[in-house]
Amino acid sequence: MKVERQKDEIVVRFSAGKNASKIQSILDYLRYEELTSKSKATQKDLDLLLKETKRGRFDKIIIEMGLDEKDYR
């Protein structure tokens, strides 16, 4: 592993190997941290978004299957 600091970035180099999936998991987490670091969303905001998303997906499935949505609410 090689770590280099370049201006306002840190560059990390790994030799190719069998642990690529573990490295990718760590990189995914770091990317998540980078993307959410300035977020002002609260847990309540996230819960509401998740609820709306699930409802929209559920409604779409009911329509696609041709089911009567009254039976599922």
If you had to describe this structure to a student in words, what would you say it looks like?
The structure is a single chain. The protein is an alpha+beta fold and 73 residues long. It has two domains: 1-39, no CATH class; 40-73. It is built from two helices and two strands. It has helices spanning 20-36, 43-65; strands spanning 2-6, 9-13. Strands 1-2 form a two-stranded antiparallel sheet. Strand 1 and strand 2 form a beta hairpin. The longest helix is centred in the C-terminal third of the chain and has 23 residues, at 43-65. It starts with a strand and ends in an 8-residue tail after the last helix.
List keywords for this structure.
14% strand, single chain, 2 helices, 55% helix, two-stranded antiparallel sheet, 73 residues, 2 strands, alpha+beta
